[in-house]
């Protein structure tokens, strides 16, 4: 993506924000999604007349997977920002500097599970059941996945590289630092 395209998309220079900022956004996204998960669980429990937490657990997990997918695909493909990304001033763009299409956002959602799946698979295969150990393994897996961004020159995550998307700085100071795009023919001078 060119700097002019980034400026036109109001996302600042075409570089990834720092890893700490993206991870802070990741954690904040989890805090916000807690409410989405709780409301979804309540609606699911009422709709299925669920009387025990383990009864219908597979259906609840599938429902949560779909609801979270709808949340992310909608926000990534419309404004290019989830609520947490807006707070942390991050924007998801495609190679042309626009919000990704719904299909690209869906692919990104599916591949973003790589943050968790390897660690969760290891926990499941090892037979560990302690909540603290599980949390430590998943946290280690998430940090290891995030660290893989340092293997790429553009510092983007693996799922973004595969999907052709980038997380960019959307703060006003980054946008001001980028040069304005050249005026189109026939536009009045600025």
Low-pLDDT regions: 1-12
Number of helices: 9
Number of strands: 2
Overall 3D geometry? Answer: globular
Cα end-to-end separation: 24 Å
Helical residue percent band = 55-70%
Given the helix and strand composition, which structural class is it?
mainly alpha
Q: Largest beta sheet: what is the strand line-up?
A: 1-2
The largest β sheet comes out as:
2 strands, antiparallel
Element pattern in H and E: HHHHEHHHHEH
Mean pLDDT: 85
Strand content: 5-15%
**Overall domain count:** 1
Q: In angstroms, what is the radius of gyration?
A: 19 Å
Tell me about this structure.
This protein is mainly alpha-helical and 190 residues long. It has one domain. Helix content is 58%, strand content 5%. It is built from 9 helices and 2 strands, in the order ααααβααααβα. It has a two-stranded antiparallel sheet with strand order 1-2. Helix 2 crosses helix 3 (57-77) and helix 6 (117-126) runs antiparallel to helix 7 (131-147).
Topology of helices and strands:
Layout: H1 3-8, H2 19-47, H3 57-77, H4 83-87, E1 90-94, H5 102-112, H6 117-126, H7 131-147, H8 158-163, E2 165-169, H9 172-177
Antiparallel strand pairs: 1-2
Question: What are its keywords?
Answer:
single chain, 190 residues, mainly alpha, two-stranded antiparallel sheet, disordered N terminus
Summary of the model, kept short:
With 190 residues, the protein is mostly helical. It contains nine helices and two strands, in the order ααααβααααβα. The chain has a two-stranded antiparallel sheet with strand order 1-2.
């Amino acid at each position: 993506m060119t700097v002019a395209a980034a400026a036109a998309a109001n996302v600042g220079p075409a570089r990834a924000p720092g890893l700490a900022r993206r991870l802070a956004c990741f954690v904040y996204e989890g805090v916000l999604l807690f409410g989405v998960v709780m409301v979804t669980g309540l609606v699911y429990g009422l709709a299925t007349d669920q009387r025990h937490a383990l009864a219908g657990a597979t259906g609840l997990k599938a429902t949560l997977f779909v609801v979270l997918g709808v949340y992310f695909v909608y926000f990534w493909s419309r404004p290019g920002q989830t609520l947490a990304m807006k707070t942390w001033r991050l924007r998801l763009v495609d190679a042309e500097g626009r919000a990704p299409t719904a299909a690209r956002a869906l692919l990104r959602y599916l591949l973003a599970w790589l943050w968790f799946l390897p660690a969760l698979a290891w926990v499941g295969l090892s037979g560990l059941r302690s909540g603290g150990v599980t949390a430590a393994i998943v946290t280690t897996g998430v940090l290891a996945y995030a660290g893989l961004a340092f293997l790429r020159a553009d510092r983007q995550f693996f799922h973004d590289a595969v999907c052709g998307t980038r997380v960019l700085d959307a703060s006003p100071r980054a946008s001001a630092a980028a040069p304005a795009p050249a005026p189109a023919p026939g536009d009045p001078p600025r």
